[in-house]
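Hi everyone, sorry if this is the wrong subforum. Our group has a chain we'd like a structural model of before ordering constructs, and none of us has done structure prediction before. Sequence below.
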Amino acid sequence: MQTLTVRGKRLTFWNKLCYAIGGAPYQITGSALGFFLQIFLLDVAQLDPFYASIILFVGRAWDAITDPTVGFLVSRSRSTRIGRMMPWILCSAPFAVATYFLIWFVPPFEQGKVVWYLVFYCLFQSMQTCFHVPYSALTMFISTDQTERDSATAYRMTIEVLGTVLGTAIQGQIVGGTNDCPADLEGRNVSKFTVSTVSLDESVRIKQAYMISTGVICIIYLLCTLVLFLGVKERKESKRYRGQLLTFRRGLYMVMSHEPYIKLVIGFLFTSLAFMLLEGNFALFLTYTLGHRKDYQNILLVIMLSGTLTIPLWQWFLTRFGKKKAVYFGMTWAVPFMILIVSIKSKLIISYLVSVAAGVSVAAAFLLPWSMLPDVVDDFKVKNPGVHGHEALFYSFFVFFVKFASGVSLGISTLSLKFAGYETGACLQPEAVSLTLKTLVSLVPVVLIFIGLLILKTYPIDEKRRQDNQKLLQEMLDSDTDSESSALGSNV
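Answer:
Right subforum, don't worry. Here is the predicted structure as tokens:
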């Protein structure tokens, strides 16, 4: 039985906290995969960069394809005693945990290893989609008040950034520093260290470390799902719109023809790509370009901690100055530090300082898209008051575009490392690899951020339009309540 409920229009602190905790599994597993899967496939599973790029691209592309499919199925789902979104979340969680565990397992055979990782990576992404799409859409079903939803989203983003901290910390602290390569390779002969120096015993120890960290993450995943179920009550929908469900084709057309949604998606597509490129290549950059082999997991942790602590700052900023201004300040804040990290001579203390500053933008990148998306859904409701079941479609297609593009970027970045001469399992990489990594974590992300901001400048929902939409929706809700009350009185 669900013990915590929504009282009227207002959500309690515990409602918001339990709702937010439900978002942690997605970010915990996402940060572990984002920061460590590439280096795991290359240096632990010891796959050729070409095959690693195929796994990363196909897995992300498959993940992207499943998002609109699951979004449509969720939108067509009938409400149950525990809601329309919650059954999807509860049923998918165990399968997501099982497939996630097998991603980090190194099978005792060489032939077919690529197929192993490809299959379980795609299966996990499918199960994760069945969890996250309804969870994201649940934002629209915990309250009808935009202020309450914004507050709950801020809680969610704080916990999700904390989730990335946990994912980075658990994976990084358990498996980080397990390589026996010399700590300082500067000035050494490259050819001398282009073969792996990791012994058989050390290889077994690294694999066991990945299994331990994965087991811890799986347990946390299940616990967070339980807290979400027990702590959040899904609000019932108005009877006025029940049964008027969108077909997939009509839903796709209506969602894709809504101008504010298209501009929001494309703008954040570019900015998200920038941070995903940074995330996917940063561990390699710290290890092989800056030489922080023994400290890279701590630097990643500092970035995530900084992001967690600054989420409340950005929530205050967007409330005080508006969401569009928050986007401009939040995204451009990272640019000088992306340039600085590749321009200065490698020093550990400077890397830590830059990481603290960069975490501020990471917080904005987490919070702002999910804070602005409900405004677009509300805008669509105002213009299409008779349409029902569209919420999951908006969220799923938003994730679809971001994930598909990130799959392309990860595949291209891993292929770029292969063309640059990346040596699997090596302690030192050629200079071309270092130059490639600098490009992938600095030049390309900076360009993508500026393109995204130019597109978001045309985003039409400002604070006035957002408040007007909220008033109109409240009038519609009051009208529905009066109609249902009248109908009930007539029946009596």
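For your construct planning: The chain has two domains: 14-182+196-234, 246-461. Residues 1-8, 186-198, 239-243 have pLDDT under 50 and may be disordered.
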